[in-house]
Amino acid sequence: xxxxxxxxxxxxxxxxxxxxxxxxxxxxxxxxxxxxxxxxxxxxxxxxxxxxxxxxxxxxxxxxxxxxxxxxxxxxxxxxxxxxxxxxxxxxxxxxxxxxxxxxxxxxxxxxxxxxxxxxxxxxxxxxxxxxxxxxxxxxxxxxxxxxxxxxxx
Amino acid sequence: xxxxxxxxxxxxxxxxxxxxxxxxxxxxxxxxxxxxxxxxxxxxxxxxxxxxxxxxxxxxxxxxxxxxxxxxxxxxxxxxxxxxxxxxxxxxxxxxxxxxxxxxxxxxxxxxxxxxxxxxxxxxxxxxxxxxxxxxxxxxxxxxxxxxxxxxxxxxxxxxxxxxxxxxxxxxxxxxxxxxxxxxxxxxxxxxxxxxxxxxxxxxxxxxxxxxxxxxxxxxxxxxxxxxxxxxxxxxxxxxxxxxxxxxxxxxxxxxxxxxxxxxxxxxxxxxxxxxxxxxxxxxxxxxxxxxx
Lengths: 154, 293
Ligand SMILES: Cc1cc2nc3c(=O)[nH]c(=O)nc-3n(C[C@H](O)[C@H](O)[C@H](O)COP(=O)(O)OP(=O)(O)OC[C@H]3O[C@@H](n4cnc5c(N)ncnc54)[C@H](O)[C@@H]3O)c2cc1C
Ligand code: FES
Ligand code: FES
Description:
heterodimer, A: alpha+beta, Ubiquitin-like (UB roll), 2 domains, five-stranded mixed β-sheet, about 30% helix, B: alpha+beta, Uridine Diphospho-n-acetylenolpyruvylglucosamine Reductase, domain 2, Uridine Diphospho-n-acetylenolpyruvylglucosamine Reductase, domain 3, Enolase-like, domain 1, 3 domains, five-stranded antiparallel β-sheet, four-stranded antiparallel β-sheet, binds flavin-adenine dinucleotide, binds FE2/S2 (inorganic) cluster
């Protein structure tokens, strides 16, 4: 069964007919067509679906979309302004923090939450800040470097 | 998509409306939804396939926080992140154990999980309920036939994934009484990795008089040491009246064995849980003592 839902995603307002039990992740990917947020574990265990809801990082796979009628959602696609990369995106590129890339969008959204709250984190704070996000490729060292770089540049 | 029978997604605008919906729908399979972080896990395991109605209570005005000389009264839908930012949770030694516990879940969970949801789940592997037990928390309930009740947390946690709510009832808040005098608390989780539930966790609350004699002590354990998180009365009896010296802490930590019956699962065996529980309790007591004024 479907019900109407209004979501503001990356500045665009969407009015959608959404299944009652759809997760926010499903709506973002399948109905709005954003593939930044990834479906990994689909159970709150890996972080690659991380988006911001009203400025706070959440796992979009464990949230029912209808809980969020009228909220503002930001995905990794919403970080950049036009062609210009957000400092966090640029730092991930420059630090070489991406291998397969599956974790990257969620990792950047976790990094954004951390830097919003704590603009100059030390290494321990960075590792704690991204502890809800798994990366199976990089071994985390370059991701930590990227977050450090982003913090130094801003 | 695993709520095949779901026909209603309610989003009540106030508490009374939420209670009315729960009261009216006693025939239907109806579930309260808060952060959904636990509920989603149940759905993924196919355990919610009969649910017909969800009542999302996050806009029902249950998010107020009262922080005064009676203690803390935290509305059911207040998130872990919101609790972490309270000055008293950040700065007062008697609430430090709650702050310790809230730091473990990843930020995405802290931004979503609610205090009402974490107690209602009655999951023996969560951290925050263990910390709340040591702080003497009470659960405020409204709705159902009783209309209004207050339940001490140990009475509220009825069993493995079972709470003491009657049909139509809702948790509206969790109260933590203010500690009189010189008290401090602490919490430690033993975990396999940064995003897993506890193998064992422990929380302690201690208060002392001017002679540094222990006047009150609560030791709580969770993480599969029993079907719910539990208080250890044996440890409490040993600590009260003592000088909290190393030998007493050791005896009290070993005494928790009397109050737990650990389980075996993919995280750890019952034997391992029983053995490390004593160590984690001793370290937690030491951490609390270090915070006493
Ligand atoms: C990836 C992950 C990591 C986690 N890590 C940790 C951790 O490190 N430490 C830790 O302590 N916990 C951890 N958790 C567990 C988390 O704390 C709980 O899932 C959360 O507290 C549940 O709260 P919620 O608001 O999301 O509840 P929901 O999932 O919405 O609800 C939980 C249950 O309670 C019922 N309910 C909810 N609110 C009420 C109410 N007000 N009245 C009556 N019934 C109600 C619901 O019907 C449901 O049965 C983790 C969870 C996940 C998914
Ligand atoms: S897909 Fe959401 S946390 Fe893994
Ligand atoms: S780059 Fe492959 S999972 Fe992180």
